[in-house]
């Protein structure tokens, strides 16, 4: 599934292909901007981009099993007599297929299905190449699998100051345990977080201040005590379950930890933040999960000891559709099976995630996945595909792809409701993973994180990302020079980074951090990207990176580069490259400092990097940019 990019017969250069009015970049497609960033897998003029097509799956085939919310698990599972639950459908399909691997289809009829537990599919539930087992919405059906449950409006009683209270434990609701610490170095909450929704809108746990952060003062990193600007700790002495969440030391990592208040100070409870983490002055956190903080419409608090839910309703809203997430664990889990397709389903409101898939040739396509406490889907295996889905509103990231596979043609937005950092739309970890033709937007931090080799990021539309965290990129790669073969080609990056007091280092569209090397960045459009000390592309100590044939418009800077000494380079190659083949290690050792920076166009963009510059052009105004004249007067070589 390795993709390709190549020149067509026309001059494959940025100066030929970008439209004059690039200020409207947010309103047109990637193919419009690049001229021919083909979205169908074939080369086209004048900029030939071959986007690899995901693995083709087989059409639904028999035996067929039908499910309906009004069905009966004692029925035979035919279209006329559907079953009621997914486990019953799985078991019926097992009966019909026997030991064969000839495919099969479970059709879900129109309606809403309450998911009480994980549906596990094992090796016997898989298909074979060319004969997938398909779990799909029936033709024309609208199917919703839900992990939340409605709280009856009559369960709420007036409490005080417009706040209502409901005894949800007595009413049989679950998942009411204490809120666990979360964030960098803490595993709490990754297995499930309870959320509350009003007409499908996630509500905010009671917090103070209601928006933004409070500034840390008088931090003692030994005693783990601190004050907060404008907040008296003594007012919070009796706040049971109180936590503080935010940026304790670095603005690229967040944590939420228990705190207690006494003697005018807040104190971090237990051993949290102990592993090199410490509260620091001028950093930003907020208090959360305390009844005292419940003062704004749309906030809520769960008293885990008493099992009672406190809610201040949104102004003018009734409680006929107030729901609380209940389902623990993934909705679907594949354990070692292969050739299974999930298609056309809506999954919402779980405490954990939608899909946890381990196996080869597993596909999730044309699904809507939203409002999960953690993320949408995780994959582990080969030739797996996440295609054509809509993901929105998860507490962490969206997709983790480990091994080999493709994330193609998805729309992902509004993530990281709980984990503000290291919660990307896609975490790719393996070899040859393709991230193509997606739209990623409105992320507090990165949209894409890459680990491993030979990944291809191509023809994506990424905008309004890295809106909060510092020292990050919309695509972020970190930590080793041993990665190789990563290509970032023909993408559009718009409005990346947001200046502010919590971004002292910088924000970039493409961030190659701490020795990352041999990455090719080519044919991209960068519009209003970069902030602080970072350009649209930022390289930190890596070598052998190439930034060629890109367009930078209204960017803070084009490329910023921090170089390393030869001695430091040899040491890091020795440390990180021990498992590399001899030839690969020798290639790394021979790399020289700097970046290849050639055949780029900068419009109203500050030029920062003076080394490795080739045939580039700089314009102060968009009106001065004439791509036709440039192509006629410049000696330009084609893409390779």
Gist?
By secondary structure, this protein is mostly beta strands.
Structural commentary:
The two termini are 19 Å apart. 8% of the residues lie in helices and 37% in strands. With 640 residues, it is mainly beta. The protein is globular, with a radius of gyration of 26 Å. The strands form six sheets. The chain has a 23-stranded mixed beta sheet that branches. It has a 13-stranded parallel beta sheet with strand order 5-8-28-31-33-35-38-41-44-47-51-54-55. Residues 1-48 and 631-640 have low confidence and may be disordered.
Topology:
Elements: E1 4-5, H1 14-17, H2 30-34, E2 49-50, E3 64-67, H3 86-97, E4 104-108, E5 111-114, E6 119-121, E7 133-137, E8 143-146, E9 148-150, E10 157-160, E11 163-167, E12 182-183, E13 196-198, E14 201-202, E15 204-205, E16 207-208, E17 214-220, E18 225-228, E19 243-247, E20 255-262, E21 265-268, E22 284-288, E23 299-303, E24 308-311, E25 322-325, E26 332-335, E27 340-343, E28 346-348, E29 353-358, E30 362-365, E31 368-370, E32 375-387, E33 390-392, E34 399-408, E35 411-413, E36 426-431, E37 434-436, E38 439-441, E39 448-453, E40 456-458, E41 461-465, E42 472-478, E43 486-489, E44 492-496, E45 506-513, E46 519-522, E47 525-529, E48 531-532, E49 537-540, E50 545-548, E51 551-553, E52 559-562, H4 566-576, H5 582-590, E53 595-598, E54 601-603, E55 617-619, H6 627-633
Parallel strand pairs: 3-4, 4-7, 5-8, 6-26, 7-27, 8-28, 15-23, 26-29, 27-30, 28-31, 29-32, 30-32, 31-33, 32-34, 33-35, 34-36, 34-37, 35-38, 36-39, 37-40, 38-41, 39-42, 40-43, 41-44, 42-45, 43-46, 44-47, 45-49, 46-50, 47-51, 49-52, 50-53, 51-54, 54-55
Antiparallel strand pairs: 1-2, 9-25, 10-11, 11-24, 12-20, 13-14, 13-25, 16-22, 17-18, 17-22, 18-21, 19-20, 19-22, 20-21, 23-24, 45-48
């Amino acid at each position: 599934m390795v993709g390709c990019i190549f020149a067509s017969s026309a001059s494959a250069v940025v100066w030929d292909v970008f439209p004059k009015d690039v200020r409207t970049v947010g309103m047109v497609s990637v193919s419009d901007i690049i001229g021919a960033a083909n979205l169908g897998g074939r080369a086209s003029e004048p900029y030939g981009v071959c986007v690899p097509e995901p693995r083709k799956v087989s059409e639904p085939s028999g035996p067929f099993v039908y499910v309906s919310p009004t069905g009966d698990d004692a029925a035979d599972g035919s279209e006329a007599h559907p079953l009621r639950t997914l486990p019953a459908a799985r078991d019926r399909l097992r009966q019909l297929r026997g030991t064969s691997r000839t495919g099969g289809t479970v059709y879900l009829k129109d309606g809403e299905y309450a998911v009480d537990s994980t549906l596990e599919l094992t090796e016997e539930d898989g298909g074979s190449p060319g004969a997938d087992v398909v779990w799909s919405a029936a033709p024309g059906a609208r199917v919703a699998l839900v992990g939340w449950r409605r709280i009856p409006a009559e369960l709420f009683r007036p409490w005080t100051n417009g706040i209502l209270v409901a005894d949800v434990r007595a009413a049989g609701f679950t998942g009411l345990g204490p809120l666990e610490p979360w964030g960098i170095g803490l595993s709490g909450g990754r297995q499930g977080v309870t959320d509350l929704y009003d007409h499908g809108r996630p509500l905010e746990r009671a917090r103070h201040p209601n928006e933004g952060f409070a500034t840390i003062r008088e931090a003692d990193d030994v005693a783990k005590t601190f004050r907060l600007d404008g907040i008296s700790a003594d007012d919070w002495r009796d706040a049971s379950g109180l936590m503080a969440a935010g940026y304790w030391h670095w603005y690229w990592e967040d944590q939420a930890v228990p705190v207690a208040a006494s003697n005018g100070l807040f104190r971090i409870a237990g051993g949290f933040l102990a592993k090199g983490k410490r509260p620091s002055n001028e950093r930003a956190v907020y208090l959360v999960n305390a009844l005292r903080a419940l003062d704004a419409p749309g906030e809520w608090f769960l008293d885990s000891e008493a099992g009672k839910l406190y809610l201040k309703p949104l102004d003018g809203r009734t409680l006929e559709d107030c729901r609380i997430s209940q389902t623990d664990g993934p909705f679907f889990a594949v354990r070692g099976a292969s050739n299974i397709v999930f298609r056309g389903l809506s999954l919402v409101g779980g405490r954990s995630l939608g899909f946890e898939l381990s196996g080869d040739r597993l596909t999730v396509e044309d699904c809507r996945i939203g409002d999960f406490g953690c993320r949408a889907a995780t994959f582990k295996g080969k030739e797996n595909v996440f295609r054509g889905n809509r993901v929105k509103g998860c507490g962490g990231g969206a997709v983790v792809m480990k091994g080999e596979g493709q994330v193609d043609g998805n729309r992902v937005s509004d993530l990281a409701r709980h984990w503000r950092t290291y919660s990307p739309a896609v975490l790719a970890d393996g070899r040859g993973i393709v991230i193509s033709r997606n739209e990623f937007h409105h992320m507090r931090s990165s949209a894409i994180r890459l680990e491993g080799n030979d990944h291809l990021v191509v023809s994506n539309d990424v905008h309004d990302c890295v809106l909060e965290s510092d020292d990050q990129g919309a695509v972020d790669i970190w930590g080793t020079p041993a990665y190789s073969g990563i290509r970032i080609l023909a993408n559009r990056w718009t409005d990346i980074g947001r200046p502010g007091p919590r971004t002292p280092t910088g924000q970039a569209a493409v961030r190659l951090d701490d020795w990352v090397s041999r990455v090719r960045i080519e044919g991209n459009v960068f519009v209003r990207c970069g902030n602080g000390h970072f350009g649209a592309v930022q390289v930190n100590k890596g070598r052998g990176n190439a930034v060629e044939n890109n367009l930078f418009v209204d960017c803070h800077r084009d490329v910023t580069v921090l170089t390393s000494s030869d001695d430091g380079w040899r040491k890091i190659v020795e440390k990180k490259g021990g498992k590399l083949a001899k030839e690969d290690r020798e290639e790394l050792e021979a790399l020289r400092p700097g970046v290849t920076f050639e055949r780029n166009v900068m419009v109203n963009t500050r030029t920062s990097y003076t080394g490795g510059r080739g045939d580039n052009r700089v314009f102060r105004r968009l009106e001065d940019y004439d791509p036709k004249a440039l192509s006629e007067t410049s000696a330009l070589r084609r893409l390779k």
